[in-house]
Design goal:
Blueprint (H helix, E strand, L loop, with lengths): L1 H17 L16 E7 L5 E2 L5 E3 L2 E5 L5 E6 L5 E12 L2 E11 L4 E6 L3 E5 L4 E6 L9
Length: 141
Protein backbone atom coordinates (compact mmCIF):
# COMPACT_ATOMS: atom_id res chain seq x y z
CA UNK A 1 0.00 0.00 0.00
CA UNK A 2 2.76 2.40 0.93
CA UNK A 3 4.58 1.66 -2.33
CA UNK A 4 1.39 2.32 -4.32
CA UNK A 5 0.95 5.70 -2.62
CA UNK A 6 4.55 6.55 -3.45
CA UNK A 7 3.99 5.65 -7.12
CA UNK A 8 0.79 7.72 -7.30
CA UNK A 9 2.52 10.71 -5.65
CA UNK A 10 5.48 10.38 -8.04
CA UNK A 11 3.23 10.23 -11.11
CA UNK A 12 1.29 13.30 -9.95
CA UNK A 13 4.56 15.18 -9.39
CA UNK A 14 5.77 14.30 -12.91
CA UNK A 15 2.45 15.37 -14.47
CA UNK A 16 2.54 18.72 -12.67
CA UNK A 17 6.21 19.28 -13.58
CA UNK A 18 5.56 18.47 -17.24
CA UNK A 19 2.30 20.40 -17.57
CA UNK A 20 2.57 23.15 -20.18
CA UNK A 21 3.33 26.53 -18.68
CA UNK A 22 2.17 29.77 -20.16
CA UNK A 23 4.70 31.20 -22.54
CA UNK A 24 5.84 34.48 -21.01
CA UNK A 25 6.57 36.13 -24.37
CA UNK A 26 2.82 36.03 -25.04
CA UNK A 27 2.40 38.90 -22.57
CA UNK A 28 3.83 41.30 -25.15
CA UNK A 29 1.47 43.25 -27.35
CA UNK A 30 1.91 45.34 -30.47
CA UNK A 31 2.72 48.42 -28.37
CA UNK A 32 5.90 46.71 -27.09
CA UNK A 33 7.40 46.51 -30.58
CA UNK A 34 9.65 47.01 -32.40
CA UNK A 35 12.18 46.23 -29.70
CA UNK A 36 15.75 45.09 -29.20
CA UNK A 37 16.08 41.45 -28.12
CA UNK A 38 18.34 40.95 -25.12
CA UNK A 39 17.73 37.20 -24.73
CA UNK A 40 15.51 34.26 -25.60
CA UNK A 41 15.01 31.52 -23.01
CA UNK A 42 13.83 28.02 -23.92
CA UNK A 43 11.45 25.87 -21.89
CA UNK A 44 14.50 23.89 -20.74
CA UNK A 45 16.26 27.03 -19.48
CA UNK A 46 18.79 27.37 -22.31
CA UNK A 47 19.48 30.97 -23.30
CA UNK A 48 20.26 32.73 -26.57
CA UNK A 49 22.02 36.04 -25.98
CA UNK A 50 25.22 37.87 -26.94
CA UNK A 51 27.41 35.12 -25.52
CA UNK A 52 25.28 31.95 -25.70
CA UNK A 53 23.81 29.98 -28.61
CA UNK A 54 20.90 27.60 -29.16
CA UNK A 55 20.91 24.43 -31.25
CA UNK A 56 17.98 23.35 -33.40
CA UNK A 57 18.50 20.30 -35.59
CA UNK A 58 21.75 20.80 -37.48
CA UNK A 59 21.73 24.57 -36.87
CA UNK A 60 23.53 26.58 -34.21
CA UNK A 61 21.71 29.89 -33.71
CA UNK A 62 23.51 33.00 -32.44
CA UNK A 63 23.01 36.74 -32.42
CA UNK A 64 24.07 38.24 -35.73
CA UNK A 65 26.39 41.13 -36.25
CA UNK A 66 24.63 44.10 -34.78
CA UNK A 67 21.48 44.05 -32.71
CA UNK A 68 18.67 41.49 -33.05
CA UNK A 69 15.24 43.14 -33.22
CA UNK A 70 11.76 41.76 -32.72
CA UNK A 71 8.79 42.92 -34.76
CA UNK A 72 5.09 42.27 -34.15
CA UNK A 73 2.61 41.81 -36.98
CA UNK A 74 -1.04 40.85 -37.06
CA UNK A 75 -2.90 39.78 -40.16
CA UNK A 76 -6.50 41.07 -40.37
CA UNK A 77 -8.85 38.67 -38.55
CA UNK A 78 -5.98 36.28 -37.98
CA UNK A 79 -3.11 35.41 -35.69
CA UNK A 80 -0.31 37.69 -34.63
CA UNK A 81 3.34 36.80 -34.89
CA UNK A 82 6.62 37.99 -33.48
CA UNK A 83 9.64 37.81 -35.75
CA UNK A 84 13.16 38.04 -34.33
CA UNK A 85 15.59 39.18 -37.03
CA UNK A 86 19.35 39.59 -37.26
CA UNK A 87 20.22 36.11 -36.07
CA UNK A 88 22.86 33.86 -37.61
CA UNK A 89 22.53 30.14 -38.21
CA UNK A 90 25.60 27.99 -38.64
CA UNK A 91 25.78 24.45 -39.99
CA UNK A 92 28.39 22.34 -41.68
CA UNK A 93 27.55 24.28 -44.88
CA UNK A 94 28.49 27.65 -43.37
CA UNK A 95 26.88 30.59 -41.64
CA UNK A 96 23.78 32.39 -42.94
CA UNK A 97 21.18 34.91 -41.68
CA UNK A 98 18.08 33.43 -40.06
CA UNK A 99 15.13 34.38 -37.89
CA UNK A 100 12.76 33.02 -35.27
CA UNK A 101 9.03 33.34 -35.84
CA UNK A 102 6.68 32.98 -32.86
CA UNK A 103 3.01 32.56 -33.78
CA UNK A 104 0.99 34.06 -30.93
CA UNK A 105 -2.29 32.16 -30.83
CA UNK A 106 -4.23 29.87 -28.50
CA UNK A 107 -1.93 26.97 -29.43
CA UNK A 108 1.29 28.82 -30.23
CA UNK A 109 3.75 27.46 -32.74
CA UNK A 110 7.28 28.56 -33.48
CA UNK A 111 9.76 28.21 -36.33
CA UNK A 112 13.41 28.67 -37.09
CA UNK A 113 13.55 30.08 -40.61
CA UNK A 114 16.74 29.87 -42.63
CA UNK A 115 15.70 31.58 -45.89
CA UNK A 116 16.09 29.47 -49.02
CA UNK A 117 17.45 26.56 -46.96
CA UNK A 118 15.32 25.32 -44.10
CA UNK A 119 12.27 25.92 -41.91
CA UNK A 120 12.14 23.94 -38.68
CA UNK A 121 9.17 23.67 -36.35
CA UNK A 122 10.68 24.23 -32.89
CA UNK A 123 9.50 24.10 -29.32
CA UNK A 124 8.40 27.64 -28.54
CA UNK A 125 10.68 29.64 -26.25
CA UNK A 126 9.48 30.16 -22.70
CA UNK A 127 10.40 33.84 -22.61
CA UNK A 128 12.31 36.63 -24.27
CA UNK A 129 13.71 39.79 -22.76
CA UNK A 130 13.10 42.93 -24.79
CA UNK A 131 14.45 46.44 -24.56
CA UNK A 132 12.54 49.25 -26.18
CA UNK A 133 14.87 51.14 -28.45
CA UNK A 134 14.87 53.46 -31.41
CA UNK A 135 14.82 51.20 -34.46
CA UNK A 136 16.93 52.15 -37.46
CA UNK A 137 14.71 52.99 -40.46
CA UNK A 138 16.08 50.03 -42.43
CA UNK A 139 14.76 47.72 -39.70
CA UNK A 140 11.09 48.73 -40.08
CA UNK A 141 8.89 46.41 -42.07
Amino acid sequence: MRQQLFVVAYVMMVVVACAPESLLWQRYTEKDFPARVRSVTTALGNVLDESRVLKYGGWTVSFGKGIPYAFYKCAPNSECEITIRNLKCESSDGRVPCQLKLHNKANPSCELIVPERDTLQILCPHDMLLERDVIPSRGRR
